[in-house]
Amino acid sequence: MSVLYFNGPVQNGAFTLAERPGKAAGIRAAAALNALLGVRPVPHLWNTVTLSGDLRHRAAGEPLGRREREEQAIAAKYARGEEPRAGVLTDTAPAVAALALELVGRLVEDGTLSVTPEHVRLCSGCGHMTGVVAGQACRACGGDQSRAARRRLLVFDRPAGQRVLEREDFLAAGARTPSHLLNIAQNTPPRLVLSRTRDHGVSLAPLGLDGLVLDPRAGLHIAVLAAAAACGAEQSAMTITANAAANVAAYGRPFRRQGGARLRYALHGRIPYDTARLGRLYEVHRVEPDVQELFTTWFLPLASLRERAGIDEARLPGLLKFCRRAHLARPATPAGDVLAELRRQVEAGDMRWVMDARTLAHAIAAREDTQGSALEPEKGAN
Predict the structure, then answer these.
(1) Closest CA to 218 of 158, 156, 131, 152
(2) Which of 258, 270, 340, 342 is the most exposed place for a label (fewest CB within 10 A)?
(3) How far is CA 55 from CA 14, 139, 180, 213, in A?
């Protein structure tokens, strides 16, 4: 296989996917693209290294371990019968932690990363690292007093002139890369701290950094690399919004290329799920349940990869009409030549096909042909 799609790890907050379907957009988009490529499902990725998670766990006051709590919270995200077929992978899973320490150790050895004494501020109450300047309230306990300290940290010094992002970091043939993402290096400090004080995470103690974990913005990239390695793919694409990419790209800079492995971003826009308009649309147009499911969980996530600035709510009626017509026009059996060209476009990240009526009709037929050769896993996949 040439590329596998994975969702950008979703932060394990206090919600379910039924309550916040927009959180599943990247998961659904990756699943749809991989199915069109003819590969088996990949695990859903989750981000569990969060300060908010630390606070929730402390407040719970129960003997349940943190890893168990995170696993239970993730399981509760899914409705009965909708659990991921390939399971889930978190950014602290053993395979991810092992790969993270391997990569970080290698990058420290070659000088890309370094363990360096730095002046920091530690909360006087709980010891949380609040930053490098005084006067910042502690986000862990709320205290407003901090003390100066000198602590060894894992840092990444970006070489002079090196950009955080290049065009080739995006899997987006035929699409223009947002200019603000290409210019993000202008707003990113040349030195980034990649170690944090968290209760939960990939421990950096093997590097002599006791009490510190890998910054989750770096860890989520490694989670994708670990998932790709487990699935036998060297080339991977992370479905992610432009805003999220802007927040994490600098921290992933040292990890997007590792040996033959390559990680790119596949940008998608926000889907207006949090509106009653969808329900009214289905009711007014008497849309059948199967078409509702097709439109909500399959077509809109794919369309969001084309509409990377976000899908305007006003466009929903037109998109529904287009999807419905393609569904009615779907052939009994998808044409081999159409599927071959579609797969070529999917592998290149070219999402213009989504608004091509004929190609979309064949893609819908391929989606339904789960027992036929159109979606049989490729040899060696997973």
Answers:
(1) 156
(2) 340
(3) 12, 10, 33, 16
